[in-house]
């Protein structure tokens, strides 16, 4: 339980540090995901200060649904933030849960719907995971049916030189 608590605190700190996207740069300034080498040994979750200083990185592939999302990397840790997406839920569909943390921003600007959310997880050789971000939309359950918005897939196969992370 304490590991989850620390992860939530680190992610909340990262969210607060990124609220103004102080470390964000234009898309042209994004670094490749594997621009810096990944550490061979697991490291602790980044602090809010580390996330604030973390460079923005380009995912291996990103579809139109993820166009408003931004990714940041600190050591082997990745944070994917989607500040303008109305987020209803975030779920780990499969893969390693170690170190994975989610955050959904509270409603703002008089809205009753949450706007913005983020995911944080480590990328280590041998890892595989699939995370789904859901939104609201019309469906059989009415106007607030939970609908898939973005699927984040991360994998780093043993024989590959670098990981692959996609958001679509």
Number of helices: 2
Helix content: 10-25%
Average per-residue pLDDT, rounded, comes to 85
Order of helices and strands: HEHEEEEEEEEEE
Characterize the largest beta sheet: strand count, sense, and whether it forms a barrel. 6 strands, mixed
Low-confidence stretches: 1-12, 14-26
Strand order of the largest sheet: 1-2-4-5-8-7
Share of residues in strands: 35-45%
Report the C-alpha radius of gyration, rounded. 16 Å
Give the arrangement of secondary structure elements.
Blueprint: H1 2-18, E1 31-32, H2 48-53, E2 56-58, E3 61-62, E4 70-74, E5 77-86, E6 89-95, E7 101-104, E8 115-122, E9 128-139, E10 142-155, E11 164-167
Parallel strand pairs: 1-2, 3-11
Antiparallel strand pairs: 2-4, 4-5, 5-8, 6-9, 7-8, 9-10, 10-11
What does this structure look like?
It contains 2 helices and 11 strands, in the order H-E-H-E-E-E-E-E-E-E-E-E-E. With 168 residues, the protein is mainly β. Strand 10 and strand 11 form a beta hairpin.
Brief write-up:
This protein has 168 residues and is mostly beta strands. It contains two helices and eleven strands.
Using brief descriptors, characterize the structure shown.
disordered N terminus, 2 helices, mainly beta, 6-stranded mixed sheet, 5-stranded mixed sheet, 11 strands, 168 residues, single chain, globular
């Amino acid at each position: 339980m304490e590991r989850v608590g620390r992860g939530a605190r680190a992610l909340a700190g990262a969210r607060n540090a990124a609220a103004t996207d102080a470390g964000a740069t234009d898309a042209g300034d994004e670094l490749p995901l594997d621009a810096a080498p990944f550490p061979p040994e697991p490291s602790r979750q980044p602090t809010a200060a580390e996330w604030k200083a973390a460079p923005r990185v380009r995912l291996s592939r990103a579809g139109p649904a993820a166009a408003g999302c931004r990714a940041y990397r600190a050591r082997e840790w990745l944070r994917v933030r989607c500040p303008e997406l109305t987020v209803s839920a975030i779920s780990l569909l499969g893969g390693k849960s170690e170190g994975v943390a989610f955050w959904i921003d509270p409603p703002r600007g008089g809205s009753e719907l949450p706007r913005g959310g983020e995911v944080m997880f480590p990328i280590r050789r041998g890892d595989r995971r699939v995370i789904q971000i859901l939104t609201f939309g019309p469906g059989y359950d009415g106007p607030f049916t939970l609908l898939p918005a973005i699927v984040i897939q991360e994998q780093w196969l043993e024989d590959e030189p670098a990981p692959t992370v996609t958001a679509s």
